[in-house]
Amino acid sequence: MIEGTDFSTMTDEELKALMSDKAHNESxxxxxxxxxxxxxxxxxxxxxxxxxxxxxxxxxxxxxxTKQLASRLGIRVGTLRNKRKERQRRAxxxxxxxxxxxxxxxxxxxxxxxxxxxxxxxVENYGKRFRICAEEIDPEFASDPDFTExxxxxxxxxxxxxxxxxxxxKYVTLYGPNGxxxxxxxxxxxxxxxxxxxxxxxxxxxxxxxxxxxYNLWRGWSVPPAAGDINLFRDxxxxxxxxxxxxxxxxxxxxxxxxxxxxxxHGAIAIVQRGAKGTGKDSFVRALARLVLNNFLAVxxxxxxxxxxxxxxxxxxxxxxxxxxxxxDRGAEGTLxxxxxxxxxxxxxxxxxxxxxxxxxxxxxxxxxxxxVPASPGDERRYFVLDVSEKRRGDSAYFDKLHKWIAxxxxxxxxxQHLLHEVSIGGFNxxxxxxxxxxxxxxxxxxxxxxxxxFELLCSGLLPGGTKLKNGExxxxxxxxxxxxxxxxxxxxxxxxxxxxxxxxxxxxxxGESAIRPGMRFGKRDHPRRWVIPPLAACRALxxxxxxxxxxxxxxIQTNLTPExxxxxxx
Length: 571
Fold this sequence. Notes:
The structure is a single chain. The protein has four domains: about 1-90, no CATH class; about 90-205, no CATH class; about 230-440, Rossmann fold, CATH 3.40.50.300; about 445-570, no CATH class. The protein contains 19 helices and 20 strands. The chain is about 40% helix and about 15% strand. By secondary structure, it is of the alpha/beta class. The longest helix has 25 residues, at about 10-35. α9 crosses α14 (about 410-420). Strands 3-2-1-6-7 form a five-stranded mixed β-sheet. A five-stranded parallel β-sheet has the order 9-10-13-8-14.
């Protein structure tokens, strides 16, 4: 029956356990065969037989196959669970007991501990508290073909009392050396066992070999690197994501390669995609997500970034903010900047003290809004902003081909091989981002106060309350600028003499040195005190030097002025 096994030396209990293990393995093989043979229609007898087989699986094994098996049998998941429980209640016990809960009669204290160790473990210091943690199958992705059993797990912490309560109705009958029996719940057996799985702490250390006493949330790359053809993906990145700009393409690929070759460091900058719906922004992210599935997170709700509880970021390596952020959200601005560039970030789970964790986030942002990120004019270093081309928008045949390529794990392995070994990044530093025209547009949207007012005046060519001087110069008082701004009723246009003085004059710090955002250094005239404003072209050139250069001044604020003003117009 089992070749090479000497049954004569076995006790009755050992023989019973061996036969049960063999039956268990055969049940698992039959269930997998039924799931694989998805075309054949099952008879009622076959369905009942499969449910019988499922009742012999451990809870962990059953949880892994629940959705697939229920779908194959044509019944609801809840119905399958209930039928399995009913079969287990009817199963005979060694002591003659047929009470609720429990496992087959041959189960021993050791087998209970081994079975629970598959799913649970203790952590001595989890946010400065003792916790029992479970490796749960994430219900959000249980039926996603991109996720396998090995990487489809999330970490759920339990307090000791909650864990004990979960096992109060799950009993097992244990046998003593003299044949005596004792009925106890599984949770007590496991939690008091010296063989329970236990770690000193939990960490997230991508690409790092941690000690056996530390539980590492890093799951590794989802596919092995391998040689292959990635031309379809590279063409999409070049033609669509980078709009055919070779410099942007080179910088983007080097940034991705640097990320994947330094997995234990944070991304340093965020890749920002701005473009219309259906242009291929998500397709770019989807391909990268396939390389790191269990440590990838896509977020569309700003609360998941700026909210108090953020434990979902603890084991996240690739974070996609998909329409999750608006550049004018001042409350979340500081949090976003911290996630992109700070080496240490706070992590807080419900019921757990705040802990400090090393930042391993690599952020990609996508949106079809005009204003996505709060970009500081002239000195922004956190964002690599790209305007995505509409070249392939609505081309369903193209995207079907691209998505089919992404779904093939061999192609994803080739992409990983390219990023890990083929892209040259000698001397590359992602902390010095490439300046793009799209970033300048984000800077224009991010202006506030006197800067926003002055930028609009430069775009429109209007000069409120000004008087004409010689040599094309004009004079204007601070009060006339403030009054004009107040009439526009813009909520972000805080305007006062101090702000105008810093912008139009010499903006210095306390030691007299030029500030990070220097002023325009315009002169003044007395009686009354007025700013001397150079010609419009000179003022625009000065803005481009000290802040940023718009693509075209007349379109920078959508004024639709025709033709573009070349001289100041007094209003």
